[in-house]
Amino acid sequence: MKKLIFLSLAILFLSGCGQANIAPNFNINTETIPKTVVNDNKTGTEANTGNTPVVNTAPKVVSTDQSKIPKPVLSLPKDLKSEINLPVTFVSQAPFANWDYLHNEACEEASMIMAVKYFKGEALDKQIMEDEIQKISKWEGENGYAVDLTANEVVKILANYFYLPATLSREVTADKIKQELSQGNLIIVPLAGRDLGNPYYRQPGPIFHMLLIRGYDATNFITNDPGTKHGEGYKYSYGDLLWAVHDWIGGARPADESLIDMNKGAKVMIIVEKNR
């Protein structure tokens, strides 16, 4: 009986080892197993049950939601003040109230002189204004300038006569003017003078005019308007002044002013830059 029991245990032990020797090989060739591929397109997933390479042919979805499209970042001046009033000394274009032909047409020169004296830190009074108008008018005549000056000609005179930097801008808006003033620059604007409606002008007012913008408040531009002795710090509403901005059409003025259409003049302004 003992021999029989021993023989049975031996058979069971040998059978167990044999099962281990024929265990499955787990080094499986994965190339023969069907693949499942997830489509990158966010509209859904696509299963592939074959062994052929997967090519994503689904159309890409482009979002039409405008709120998700990045917007350009605007570069605006920091710390833009609600009010600015630069201390530019005022003297009219007729310092001693002599409104003869020369002084009647000297708004461009007077505006330039006020800007130049401010930036150079030089004194300005009636006699100085008179002397400067006489000198610059003589120089302009010798250099081929007409009595009325375009904005571009003013830029050239500021550079070649006064040695002061200035640029011509076709962006004539309240925001642009405020930005330039906030940087310490001054603005000279050409105007259809009769569109300003200034009650202090000799009526009906100048057909063409220039003045200097020195500041602004909540609703108005603050100007030095050389066309009247009341022009120091004179305020024009944003709308009234911007409406009247028109450049001189160029050349000599015809004797008949009814032939002049100031509405044909471009919307431009002169940025007189502070000394670098």
Describe the structure.
The chain is α+β, with helices and mostly antiparallel strands. It has a domain at 84-272: Cysteine proteinases (Cathepsin B, Chain A). It has 7 helices and 7 strands; from the N terminus they run αβααααβαββββαβ. Strands 1, 2, 3, 4, 5, 6 and 7 form a 7-stranded antiparallel beta sheet that branches. Strand 4 and strand 5 form a beta hairpin. Helix 3 (107-120) packs across helix 4 (126-142). Residues 1-76 have low confidence and may be disordered.
Structure classification:
alpha+beta
Q: What is the multimeric organization of the chains shown?
A: single chain
Order of helices and strands: HEHHHHEHEEEEHE
Radius of gyration, CA atoms, in whole angstroms:
42 Å
CATH superfamily of the domain at 84-272: Cysteine proteinases
Number of strands: 7
Largest sheet: 7 strands, antiparallel
CATH fold node name of the domain at 84-272: Cathepsin B, Chain A
Secondary structure elements and pairings:
Layout: H1 2-21, E1 84-85, H2 101-104, H3 107-120, H4 126-142, H5 151-160, E2 166-169, H6 174-182, E3 186-191, E4 209-216, E5 220-224, E6 232-237, H7 238-244, E7 269-272
Antiparallel strand pairs: 1-4, 2-7, 3-4, 3-7, 4-5, 5-6
